[in-house]
Amino acid sequence: MISAAQLASIPSPSQGVWYVGPIALRAYAICIIVGIVVAVWIGNKRFVARGGRPGRVTDIAVFAVPFGIIGGRLYHVITDNQLYFGEGRNPWNAFAIWNGGLGIWGAIALGAVGAWIGCRHYKVPLASFADSVAPGIAVAQAIGRLGNYFNQELFGAPTTLPWGLDVFVRTPGGVPGVIPADGNCEFPTDYVKAAPEVLCGTYQPTFLYELLWCLGVAALVIWADKRFRLGGGRAFALYVAAYTLGRVWIEMLRIDPANHFFGLRINVFTSIVVFLGAVLFLYLRRHVTREDPALVWGPDRPGQRGRADEPGAPAGAPSGESADGPAAAPTAPADEPHPADKGPGTG
């Protein structure tokens, strides 16, 4: 039986960027893209299981994803402005998103604005969309942390644990190098491991901690959503509360430079505030039930009749749906099984 002491440490990758001719393939960007695709795929399956139209999450993601990326970058640049502005800094690097740097809080905030616009456009409830995509976002975050691993960044304090992350000196083109005088083992993303290799240090693998935590959050949300049939944004709030709970202790392990607020790293402070807000939201909406499947589908659901905005509809007929709140929803036609009767699915 192998003891913990016999386990090897985790080696960091030799590089985070590969070139195919003039084209740079960056691990960070690839992980972000793969994460988005996986999140949309999971969200689509869960949205359909709640009665939504297939492909509608993809449609809304066209609005939400660009907003989320912009918001994530803005949050990072604002909270870590010392990396881009001031003496010796190049402010144009604030646009170099391929080098890493997306703040989840900004991504969620502006991503929600984009999702709201998309939901208004397609006339589906924002709460149903948010509840559907919640676990997929957590999985996307887990995949995104692999990008930090390849960039050899955002690791924690030095450690002697058997699962510590071995961080090596990286140099331009991999030329011989030494440990920097300031002991900083984070290097530009286009640098590669120096040859001969030089171990810069062994650190807490915070990327791995957050990756595993996010996968656990996704599993928790899926379980709770099935068990308690969460609606009204409660599945999304559960994701937020569970993620921020883990982010607090993981963030406190990190040693990369960060601004502080009330003596805490700003991401720790933000996590605490957002956690409390999510818990309050869950409490206030603890009796909210899941939305009617007909409402989740939208106004173009097959078999809907008597919509007020249709030519020839009788006066006073119900509109059938509103993205701002519940409206009278017709029943599903007799020859089509109600989505809620098709089994638990993935919701």
Automatic annotation (TrEMBL):
| Recorded topology in the membrane | Multi-pass membrane protein
> Which GO molecular function annotation, any one, does this entry have?
phosphatidylglycerol-prolipoprotein diacylglyceryl transferase activity
Q: Do the record's keywords include Membrane?
A: yes
**What's one Pfam family the UniProt record gives for this protein?**
LGT
- Name the pathway: Protein modification; lipoprotein biosynthesis (diacylglyceryl transfer)
Binding positions for a 1,2-diacyl-sn-glycero-3-phospho-(1'-sn-glycerol) per the UniProt entry: R145
Q: Which UniProt keywords apply?
A: Cell membrane, Lipoprotein, Membrane, Transferase, Transmembrane, Transmembrane helix
At the top level, the lineage of the source is Bacteria
* UniProt-listed Enzyme Commission number(s): 2.5.1.145
Q: What family is this protein classified in? A: Belongs to the Lgt family.
The name under which this protein is listed is Phosphatidylglycerol--prolipoprotein diacylglyceryl transferase
- Source organism (scientific name): Nakamurella multipartita (strain ATCC 700099 / DSM 44233 / CIP 104796 / JCM 9543 / NBRC 105858 / Y-104)
Organism taxonomic ancestry: Bacteria, Bacillati, Actinomycetota, Actinomycetes, Nakamurellales
